[in-house]
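go over both lines:
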Amino acid sequence: MTRQNSKGRSGRKLDGVWKHFVQVPLKSPGHYSGECKLCHKKWPRAYVNVLQSHLANECADCPEDIQNYWLGYLTAKNSLEDETASIASQESSQSIISNKRRRSSNGIINYINY
């Protein structure tokens, strides 16, 4: 059973990983249990990142092209998250330094070396 795109339906679109899984709606809207169509492993509450990881790393019956696609997808996603975290860390360090400079009460700017 899959979610039908009907007029007026709101919410997120289903991720492409779901075409490899049977999904059964749960009581809470937008949530599903899932079963891999390839190896028949089941999840009582299926999360997209877990399903993607299953196809990339765990499913013994997954064809190589599908496995390589999801492995590349997750690698690119993790690389982007690492880059974003690095930028956020640098920005945080800069704001700490600039906050300490503003705290100077006598008009002298203190430079802090990290």
In short: The CA atoms of residues 32 and 47 lie 8 Å apart. Strands lie at 21-25, 32-36, 42-43.
